[in-house]
Amino acid sequence: MILSVKGLAFQYPSREVLQDINFTVAKGDFLAILGVNGAGKSTLLKCLNKVLSPHAGTVFIREEDTGKLSRRELAKRIGYVAQRQEGAFATVFDAVLLGRKPYIQWEASQKDLEITRKALKSLDLEGYALRYLNELSGGEQQKVVIARALAQEPELLLLDEPTSSLDLKNQFEVAKIVRNVVQDNQMCAVVTMHDLNLAIRYANKFLLLKNGVIFAAGGLEVMTPENIESVYAVPVKIKEIEDIPVVVPV
Ligand SMILES: Nc1ncnc2c1ncn2[C@@H]1O[C@H](COP(=O)(O)OP(=O)(O)OP(=O)(O)O)[C@@H](O)[C@H]1O
């Protein structure tokens, strides 16, 4: 098991957002966190990464309490891509190399440069290496920050709606890359998503959040029309097209 979350709760000053959240994520798992706007998905990711401090409960990475890990140690183990990115004046290569920061003492080693090149390659960004971030489209920038998180070589990848500003081809590409990366590198990913079809196709675990509590969690068996309707308040059917399950609102 890479990630274990026990009894996690969080509240903003004016409102309680998460209550009694318990789940685990194993090596090779791609867990999709699903739920309506405001359900608490981003807040949950931020609690896992200690961007926010949970008011109750504990987050363990390989049985180590993350509350006791230093920021640097946490950055080696958790790669986090937030929903909104701050613009920075840097080349794509330097932006991805920044993912190696927790490992670099004085200057980047050959290994750091190699890992950076590999991360760029996995997102098809080699041709962009010397371009400046402010010269890229929103979707291209999104891919750069995902490459940076991969360069961190974390055990746990946290992605907050990584496909939201991508075109159709790149949505599938990025979801596939995440699935392949976690499987090939013995790591795991926790990803907030709105596209149920993308989630069903590429994730292997699902966590349905409703009003700050876990409504259902597990493998594909929890993605039933009944559960989806209860969470999203939209009746749906699930049909197979060329052996691929597709969620259709009816
Ligand atoms: N900084 C904040 N202060 C107070 N309340 C907040 C803050 N950030 C979020 N909230 C509230 O907490 C709840 C959960 O927000 P969160 O962003 O986690 O939802 P989400 O499921 O990620 O939504 P979305 O799908 O729209 O991104 C919402 O009701 C939101 O209004």
Automatic annotation (TrEMBL):
Q: Which UniProt keywords apply?
A: ATP-binding, Nucleotide-binding, Transport
InterPro entries registered for this protein in UniProt: AAA+_ATPase, ABC_transporter-like_ATP-bd, ABC_transporter-like_CS, Metal_Ion_Import_ABC, P-loop_NTPase
What's one Pfam family here?
A: ABC_tran
Q: Name one GO molecular function term.
A: ATP binding
Entries under PROSITE patterns matching the protein: ABC_TRANSPORTER_1, ABC_TRANSPORTER_2
Per the database record, which ranges form the ABC transporter domain? 3-236
Q: Does the keyword rRNA-binding apply?
A: no
User: What's the family?
Assistant: Belongs to the ABC transporter superfamily.
Name the UniProt record assigns to this protein: Iron ABC transporter ATP-binding protein
